[in-house]
Amino acid sequence: MNKKRRRRNRRAFTIVEILVVVIIIAVLATMIVPRFLGRVGQSKQAVAKMKLAEIEKAIEIFSYDYERWPAELDELVNQPADIDEAKWQPPTIRTKDLLDPWKRQFIYRQPGEHGIYDIYTLGKDGQEGGEDEDADIGNWE
Question: How many Å apart are CA 44 and CA 31, to the nearest integer?
């Protein structure tokens, strides 16, 4: 009977064993999480650059189709009042593509300071300037 009790008690984990596992997981997490978070920022910057290129293509198509530059990015997805229904072409871009990876609208300026038009995002911090994830990303780079 004593052997059965010992076996029954032995099946559960001890507090020390659980603490050791928790400490090991915590140590691994402190080593892995910072690397992962750095990659997320780089990925968002890459997505912002790809979206900028996509918006540029949509602006170029718009300018060829309607012989003018869009007054604002919204005109790439919604029919402007000055364009006749018969001439309006389906948009080549979606409304959600006009948002940067931080869920803010890309900034569009026409005429631009760096070219005919400027499209840019202010990065993670939403402020002009910055470095790394907070850096501005524009179509003039």
Answer: 22
